[in-house]
Amino acid sequence: MARRALMLAIVNLQRADGSWMSADRVLAAVETHISSLVALTWRKQVAALSSSPTAQPTTVQETMVATCLALAVLEAECARQHAEWALIANKAEQWLKKQQAHQTPAVATDAGATDAGAADAGAADAGAADAGSVAMTTILTHFGITV
Fold first, then answer.
1. 34: helix, strand or coil
2. How far is residue 124's CA from residue 133's CA, in Å, rounded to a whole number?
3. How far is Cα 118 from Cα 138, in angstroms, rounded to an integer?
4. How many CB atoms lie within 10 A of CB 57?
5. Rounded CA gap, 12 and 126, in Å?
6. DSSP symbols for 50-68
């Protein structure tokens, strides 16, 4: 029941354009419906992205990270409810693809840099091989996103 409540909380945070605006609000939903420990694991994933050596993140980049986080949480924590959130995820993926296409060369990054950043974060965090980390890395790599 807690996983379904988490799914509903995350789905309710999605904006009409398919994105999620705030990683903090997604993490608050995880903390409320699952546990503080699980939320802390996810918070470490977002912190690893935020501390990357690239330029100061823009609002669009922060929204892209929040959207990837929401998708990763749904995939890792709410897999049993996949049929219920699949269409919402498709809308989010379309939004991410649109944003990726609009990024300037100075802002856009390649998947190789994402993989290297994820590897560094994984080396620093012994729990990086958990399902959440894998889901987040997979989604970010798919869209070639770093901040």
1. coil
2. 13
3. 10
4. 17
5. 32
6. HTSSSSPPPHHHHHHHHHH
CB crowding 32-47: b at 16 or more within 10 Å, else e: ebbeeebbebbbbbbe
Q: Which amino acid is at 119?
A: A
pLDDT in tens, 114-141: 444 444 433 333 343 366 666 677 777 7
**Rounded alpha-carbon distances, angstroms, from residue 131 to 7, 40, 103, 135:** 16, 14, 29, 6
Q: What span, in angstroms and rounded, lies between the C-alpha atoms of 18 and 36?
A: 27
Higher pLDDT, 46 or 67: 67
Distance CA 84, CA 123 (A): 34
Locus of tokens 């856009």: 108
Number of domains in the chain: 1
Query: Domain range for residue 139?
Result: 2-143
> Does residue 130 come out as left (phi exceeding 0), alpha (psi in the -120 to 50 range) or beta?
beta
